[in-house]
Amino acid sequence: MKKILPPIMLFLCVFALLQCCLPYTFLSWEEHGLFLHTPDWRSEVFSGSLPLVTYVTSWIVQFFHYPMVGAALIAFGTTLIFLLLCVLMPKARKAIWIVFALLLIAGVCVLGTNKAIREIERWAKLEHVAQKKKWNEVLAIATPERAKKDRRMMPYALLALSEKGELANRMFTYPILGVEDFLYVDWYSRESGFFNSLFYESFGSVNEAVHQTFQSATYLPHGTSFGTLRRLVLLYRKQGNDTLADKYATILNQSTLHNYSLGKRANVSGEGAPDSIDSLKQTSAKASLITRDAFYNVGQMLAQGHITQANVDRFLCMALANRDLKIFYRALKLYVDIKRPLPKHYQEALLLLLSSFDDSVDISEVKIDEGVRNAFETERNRDTFFGYYFSVPQQNGGGNPIEPSGQNASRQGSGFKVGS
Amino acid sequence: MPLCFLLLVMWLLAGCGRPSTFIDADSFPPIFPDYVGVTVPLSMQQLPFEMSDGRCFSVEKETKGDTLFFRVSAWERGSSRGMRYKPFPVYLSHDDIDPYVAYRLIEPGYESWRDMGIYQRELGSFNESSIVTNDANNKGCVNCHSFAGANPERMLFHARGQGGGTVFVDGDDVRLLNLAKVGPRKQGTYPAWHPGGRYVAFSSNDTHQCFSVEDKQPIEVYDLSSDIILMDVSTDSIYAYPLLNTADVWETFPAWNEEGTKLFFCAADSVEGMPERRAKVHYRLMEIGFSEGKFVGEPSVVWECDTLSASFPVIKGNKLLFTTTSHGTFPIWHQDADLWMLDLETCKAAPCDDLNSFRAESYHSWSSNGKWVVFGSRRLDGRYTRLFIAHYEGNGRFSKPFLLPQKSPQENLLRLKSYNRPEFMTRKSPELQKQVRNLFAP
What we know:
- The structure holds 2 protein chains of 2 kinds.
- Helix content of chain A is 63%, strand content 0%.
- Chain A is mainly α.
- Among the domains of chain A are: 5-113, no CATH class; 323-405, no CATH class.
- In chain A, helix 1 packs parallel to helix 6, helix 5 packs antiparallel against helix 6 (93-113) and helix 13 packs antiparallel against helix 14.
- Mean pLDDT of chain A is 85; it is low at 264-283 and 397-413.
- By secondary structure, chain B is mostly beta strands.
- Chain B has 2 domains: 20-93, no CATH class; 100-112 and 175-422, Neuraminidase.
- Chain B is built from 3 helices and 33 strands.
- In chain B, the strands form 8 sheets. In chain B, strands 1, 3, 5, 6, 7 and 8 form a 6-stranded mixed sheet that branches. In chain B, strands 28, 29, 30, 31 and 32 form a 5-stranded antiparallel sheet that branches.
- In chain B, a hairpin with a 5-residue loop joins strand 20 and strand 21 (262-269).
- The interface between A and B is large, with 66 and 72 residues.
- Strand 1 of chain A pairs antiparallel with strand 17 of chain B.
């Protein structure tokens, strides 16, 4: 019993440490990893450097889909090393035990307090909860204070607020600098592709969500990953493209853990007939195009009738972030019943519009809260629209989303250069 | 406990065990890939397949003259009764096929990529090997491989990225040339070797892509300008013939006739307001004379259609195979893209119904003897291009195309890369990875 206790203690301590400190990091390892029983994956691994190490670690990492299993595997490995050392050096058993105890204490200090490690864990958690659409948890991580220090959190916060229907009440409690805060403007990184995919999924464009997912995957070691493939299954199911959803599910099923049920197998494995040949043959050259300007893109979706509360709020709030009060007013009258109580930031914008003595503005039917009126006349804090309007310097960018012409769309970048 | 173990063993043994009784069916078996009634060359008789519904199966093969007959019996796992299908024929053709096909493997992706490469496949076996991958040019793009007379020892391809250009291979001589720094300073895109091997016609395209918000066609690739230039490989000089370099016409996809006396290409009137007005872009087939290293005369129209746009003309004898789509220049993203054949004697064009499917057919190439064609199609899933081969039967007709066989049929489904630009080769290409890596070494 005395001999068994130290390794058991070591296993439990390492397990508890990892489980407490790195659960989301483990999840993200699995998300970005890949292990498949396919000829292509095997030949890729065995033509690379350290093939055996890559093969074994990839096999192990797939179990990190369950962070407890990941923690248990590492704890088990550590315990094995401990036991091996004890067997090889029986006289130094006490010293080995002390070294491992010291390493454990160092581990607690480093994993628990090291800023870089905590930051990695926080971002892994943020990406995970955003993907799971746990918006309260997103907002608990992406707080206004943190967003001030790390502006990469802004798009997550604004996405969570719009999904919760709180964008028009709370947006300016965050350190907004412009409409660019809604999306990662730098499209060329794994992180930007990952977020932009979530944004465009919420926005209603599965095509663009798939595009961004592919972009994100090109930065991963195998050019794809478990996370990428799972997301493609989800997005194509959402789009009703079961052929491709089944294809990616079939590929995922070549791993050890995944076991997706497929649709009709004939659709996947044969030159099977599609649901509707006419719909497949359709090649519409009139479809709206994605530009690099999120404001323009949301405007297009609304103009085409994709009117959801989240998209309306997103559009109106982007207009406010862009200081485009005329567009805001026109869109408000078009998409929102102004006789009903309006969110705080809309009331603030209307007050500001009214004060500009614009005759075309009629807010007689709008109920402005007393608090908003007082804030406008006295405080104009930074967490209000007028605070933002008067205190934050104007950024570049933002087009005219209401009247997109071909020229306008091109200027905003609906085309992307191919080649070098 | 022993009983449980026995039951488990029995269940496992029952798995794919052959049932004792079979019902005869008066139909061919539903197999993947669909090899029922296809024509194959003598060198490609290995055709692995499986039941498309995943059932267990067994095959009896019988040869009668120039026809192979496969009698398939299939059954559900654990079932005591199976189905015996009508033997399906595979016709053997004595027309030779080139022993290798080269293609690029790349994710059917968007703006950026990770791994891609130009690969070759021996058609008489399942052996695939790389010619060059983008590890050689720091993950830049490698594309547009083209062989002089299907000879892999005299070829070119583009290797983009920092310090990139066009790689010319002539036996052991491998060199890199940035065409944009020579002569008229135009970059080369789609190449076509003159049959004599001294000249290469390139189109020079300013290519862009755009993405649709919600349409079934997620990507459109389009040009904002394109011209055709001619390179003399013996002197590395480049010539831009004024009539093929006009601003108001976009010229692209050069292709020589077999005699080398004519250059065929596609041309469209330039359109302002791209990509929004992309539906207005319709390419027609054109030709211009060529003699002693110079273009002769003016370009003339060979085929045009108000509602279709032509791309990828490839000529063998008087047969010009090309791709059509409703508009534009990049058919692989158009589900309506189909292969057409133009008879150069009668100038009559017709769709190749034997080859086309309800999804995109795109790049294609003739075998050296003009008896076989290999082409890319997205008919399996609408996204991943796979290679299909068909025998030319004459009079504009082809045999039923068959999917490039793989050792395991599942490989056709599991491979996460698309096959681009299939080109027949008369022999195996040497691996060029080291030489190309040296060209990009700092």
